[in-house]
Amino acid sequence: MERILAHIDDHFDAHLDQARRFVRQPSISGEGIGMPEMARLVADRITELGGRAEIVPTDGWPVVYGEIDQGAPRTLLVYGMYDVQPVEGETWMAPPFEGQVVSLEGHGPSMVARGVYNTKGPLAGFFNVVHTLREVEGRLPVNLKFMIEGEEELGSVHLPQFVARHRDRLRADAAYFPFYMENAQGKPVMWLGVKGILFFELTCRGGDWGGPTVRGIHGSNAVWISSPTWRLVQALRTMVGPDERILVDGLYDGVAPVSADDEELLAALARTFDEQTILQDHDVKRFKYDLRGVDLLRRYLYDPTLNIDGLVSGYVGAATKTLLPHEARAKMDVRMVPNMEPETVVATLRAHLDRHGYADIELRVNEGYPPAKTSVRQPVVQALIRAVRRLGVEPEIWPHLGGSAPFYLFTGELRLPFAMGGLGHGGRPHSPNEYATVEGMKRFEKSVAAFLVEFARG
Amino acid sequence: MERILAHIDDHFDAHLDQARRFVRQPSISGEGIGMPEMARLVADRITELGGRAEIVPTDGWPVVYGEIDQGAPRTLLVYGMYDVQPVEGETWMAPPFEGQVVSLEGHGPSMVARGVYNTKGPLAGFFNVVHTLREVEGRLPVNLKFMIEGEEELGSVHLPQFVARHRDRLRADAAYFPFYMENAQGKPVMWLGVKGILFFELTCRGGDWGGPTVRGIHGSNAVWISSPTWRLVQALRTMVGPDERILVDGLYDGVAPVSADDEELLAALARTFDEQTILQDHDVKRFKYDLRGVDLLRRYLYDPTLNIDGLVSGYVGAATKTLLPHEARAKMDVRMVPNMEPETVVATLRAHLDRHGYADIELRVNEGYPPAKTSVRQPVVQALIRAVRRLGVEPEIWPHLGGSAPFYLFTGELRLPFAMGGLGHGGRPHSPNEYATVEGMKRFEKSVAAFLVEFARG
Hints:
The structure is a homodimer.
Chain A: H1 2-10, H2 12-23, H3 35-48, E1 52-56, E2 63-68, E3 75-81, E4 100-104, E5 108-112, H4 120-137, E6 143-149, H5 159-165, E7 174-178, E8 189-191, E9 193-194, E10 196-205, E11 217-218, H6 228-239, H7 260-272, H8 275-282, H9 293-302, E12 305-314, E13 323-324, E14 327-336, H10 342-355, E15 362-369, E16 372-373, H11 379-390, E17 396-398, H12 408-413, E18 418-421, E19 426-427, E20 435-437, H13 438-457
């Protein structure tokens, strides 16, 4: 292991150049810029490292699929993405597609580039580790498979299609998502899962029940013609009480109790968890509940949520204009905690609206997938924990994220435990001056090398 | 009277040219196009007719003030406007600032031009009547004062200022607003007043109570951080019940009972009032109430309303984006019926929000003025009714409009009874192909001539 770490130190300038090779190729999925070129670059890199790679078409941007078979007992499926967010209209301190290293206040020398944090930097770093292990050991301790998608920034639209079509090729012992997990305070944060999400839209339009049906009409008619806007407000009010508690009967049904393992993780987490930092980071004065520590964390992680992401009706410009709108829309989401399923939630919401007399209100689902998590006891998770501890770091372990990602594809579709993370720090994803610290990029590679060695051990 | 009507018939081509002179001069207050030129044209017209005119500055577009003093016992204050709506982006069958006469299906020969209906046509027509009376009789039977504003399409922003500053000059026996009052079905509809309006905005932002204070934050935080959007929904729900009845304590206080005169008008009105036409015109399937005739009319005219004109919060684009918004806004209005005052309504709304625990929700008033109406018994109203009857027409008389206009300036500030209307038909105000029928323009002039004669008689 020492030889491996020393090799990373000795060749790190060349490793940075590999990361630079990736970030220099723009690959903006949302604008269709440089996507085939980037897919080719990733596939070529896998081939350079002795693997086989294929650019597999989907109904959207292709997936780069690769294999490095070493005849090892265990196989790891590496998930990643080759697309990045747009930079249109942003002002950067260094060109976003060059990979300059600049000194950032509070962070030291850092590479500033679109994608260097999210997530070309970690992906390039992973490949550097593969290269290093082959240089030092002659071979890898595990077999690798790669599934590198080009639509993560679009919501992984066609990844389910790819997974369904290539289930057999994707067989492995575990999945892994390379990512820098040290936050701005230098704390290494490790998540064992994600919440699910149901993103949907409620639309109330005038119809047989009343209200204008075709266009907004003069506001003076509100006195004798019903308002779809008021109707949507009334319907929403049946779904959530003044204390923000969800009133939709059955929405909490099936929510899994917190497991003993998770309670243990929560207790540990509460020792380093800092409520004030959360409030400050979000410019919020107080939480929804007068709770602290484990009790607050339990709410955060295990409560389903019904959120209004957006609400619009009628005239919302600066002027004075009276209008009786013909339509009101709410964009909403339910964050789903373990054991919740999008289909059940949709049925529950629909039944609630119908039961309260709002059968006319349209419920249209935009997107939905269930939560996904891996037990802390899984070998792949334990391997990652041991790896960072070998580098002298004690991770803060979260049973799962408050956020969502379609990792049910691993846990549900492919029945694979998964782990994500690695040391390293970066920031400002989706924003100007996205960065990763040079020191963190190096620490990342060392932690990944240790992870692969630990994972091979089982 | 016969000689007057014949003179109008004989000289009507010249009269149409006068209307054309007005519509050919663009005068778009909202875009600042042609405003001084149009004010000058109106002032010149008053001078041509033997009066004195002045273009009086305000903090916005000037008001054209004029007088034609005939030493008559009675004085009429004519209110009008010289501004029109924009035509930007509209497609017209004839250029909007030419005044072409074209044959319109269902309407016959009509002048198509911006402002010909709203309201340069009626204004030019009124001046034509003054010209005719002077030609035929040598003098007018009444003294005239003119107050022609340039900001009607902007909400008459500086008209209160003008009235306050020139109260003495505006003394008269009654006010009159020239307008074509025959609707698309050929029915002459006469309104004796308008509702008042309070236009305001409610804004709920994150603050000491919770919620994001500076910007929208990641939607996953909705599980432990409160939502200004849900809070606004909850607050709105306290104001109006599921049956759309207003729940704001005190909002109905002071609402005047329907007077005996108005009940008589309602009973007459119900004989010609057609519910189905209202529904069809607005593409609405049913009214808010299962009422008909007088009962429905009573609601329409004498119920205050609390309407949501617009509602907005968070992300309302087409994509999937989870967000916990930091702000939610509702643009709202209260239509005020007789005896309601904007100041009282504001205080009532504020007290309601405070009492329900929403003291943090901002209530900002954009505009507000009380209702205004004139009794059917007033001589100016009776004169207009007699005038149209002399031309063989029985008007449908409404105690007041469902809509609003700042006519409290007449009834309240200046203590003047007022009347509005005249025969004639036009349509599509604020829209492409705004028109007035040539036949209607002629009927308008005849009815105005009869009105001035009747008004002089008392």
